[in-house]
Amino acid sequence: MHRPKGAFRLYSSDPAEIICTDTELLYDSKRRGEPIQRIPLTDVVSVEVEDGEAAQSRGTATRLVTLGILALAAKKRSGGDKWLMIETRQALLTLHFERKTVDGLMRFVAHTRAAVKAAQSQPAPAAPPAPIRWPGTPQQPAPKPGGWGRIFR
User: Fold this and answer.
1) Fewer CB atoms < 10 Å away: N or C end of the chain?
2) Residue 7 and residue 1 in contact, taking contact as beta carbons nearer than 8 Å
3) Average pLDDT over the chain, rounded to whole?
4) Residue range 3-21: mean pLDDT, rounded
């Protein structure tokens, strides 16, 4: 995907690519047939980074149900993995990042939060002005049915 000037690009481990411009987030899932998603920054509610271990601990109950008593012996994945969570008015976008990309992830989050704040602090565009009607200008009357058509029948 082409990166616009001044935009910040980030690749996740999923594989996916996300770009933050001054007005929107561009998300490309890198799957065939899926279009690039455009998310206006004015629709973004929050941009958070969650620790992989915190996300994993929520999965412990699921592991217990799935594996039963063997869940305590099953090996968990460990490491400094992070999850980027972008919440919008319509959806929640989550992307996985490995430990080696955390520095870029944190820079992306700082850039995106600043861009969201700037986009949301701008006033909404005003509605276009109503057309001006000049007083005294006669309006054309609507044509009467059957005018010239009768002559040529």
Assistant:
1) C
2) no
3) 76
4) 79
Show contacts of 24-29: CB within 8 Å, 24+ apart.
Answer: 25/86, 25/112, 26/1, 27/93, 28/1
> Which residue type does 54 have?
A
pLDDT in tens, 104-150: 899 999 999 999 999 989 887 777 777 776 666 566 666 666 655 55
Tokens of 17: 């690519």
CA distance 38 to 35: 9
Torsion of CA 71, 72, 76, 81, to 10 degrees: 100
